Amino acid sequence: xxxxxxxxxxxxxxxxxxxxxxxxxxxxxxxxxxxxAEVETDKATMEVEVFxxxxxxxxxxxEGDAVPLGQVMAVIGEEGEDISEILAEAESGSAxxxxxxxxEEEAAGQEKEQEEDYDPVLEDVDKETATAPDSDGRIKAxxxxxKMAEEQxxxxxNVKGSGPQGRIVKSDxxxxxxxxxxxxxxxxxxxxxxxxxxxxxxxxxxxxxxxxNNPHYYETVSVDMQPVWDARKQINEVSDTKISFNDIVVxxxxxxxxxxxxxxxxxxxxxxxxxxxxxxxxxxxxxxGLLTPVIDNTDQKGLxxxxxxxxxxxxxxxxxxxxxxxxxxxxxxxxxxxxxxxxEFTAIxxxxxxxxxxxxxxxxxxxxxxxxxxPGKRMKMTLSSDHRIVDGAxxxxxxxxxxxxLENPLGMLL
Length: 414
Hints:
The protein is built from eight helices and 18 strands. The protein is an alpha+beta fold and 414 residues long. The termini are far apart. Residues 98-133 have low confidence and may be disordered. It folds into three domains: 3-94, CATH 2.40.50.100; 121-175, Dihydrolipoamide Transferase; 198-413, Chloramphenicol Acetyltransferase, CATH 3.30.559. Its EC number is 2.3.1.12.
């Protein structure tokens, strides 16, 4: 008996999957547990295995095709088995999804055509060849030609009519080419269409929902990073694992969150949950958007461990090897664009987090110390907060604690 291989639900937010690669061809024999395809979901590229043995009788989706959940991807059975009913069922399912849109488009086209062709004065007479005396000196033109000229900004007196008695008709407007001033040669370049990946679709949906459903507000502080600069230099001289400035910001944020649990919270309509664990998501830029791998129990880990995990997760993110569980359970998010030279920015909250911290670049700027202008190192941080959970004073207290920890690095160890 033929078996339908349907698009499985490979993540909790997945609505469709894109066939990234087929590992089999029609006619191949597969065993239960074999990986037959790789599917791009909204979070990662996942493997699809079969649970039945048999011959691949038909592949119904090509590489690059988006397949909705539950739709048939392939058919497995005995060689030579009749699968016409399954194919007809799969085809009708696709047709039903496309038919309403096609009918609507066709109806709209017919309606538009009728509106253009119908003349309430001439009715069934061909208005492009009809004659109407113009005793009042007006330029002879059909109603449709007048309308087209008005819409296109064409002066009728500049158009030569080809209809009876020099009447201007539709075709005259369509073929009219106004005199153009000489211009430099221009090279026309083709537009480039880029398929929207499952990841980009999910990013767009989730961030749109966050921006318009969560009442965002923003607070910014400037931090003296000279102490961190000096501390990092000393740490890296004795550490096997090189510590980045971002690792230190992550560690300091985790310590500050422990002191301000209201920032480490989520909104669930009828309740606010202050999370017991501090799990910080670190935004990683990839070609198709932004991924947010999570460092679990961040507050309980040292700088070396945070650095190791951050690099491993970032590498997996760039290679699209992150698993869904490695991007789930965050309670706070940090987005750092300092390495791109960005001084300051605001970030959209990563739901269901209450806040996200946007970190800018460390800049050498003139500062005043003891009445004198001296060189200093400053970094701006902006906290985006969900006003349903976090009030302005709460956010300010958290930022001040974080600022104090970075300006006194030993404080995060207390």
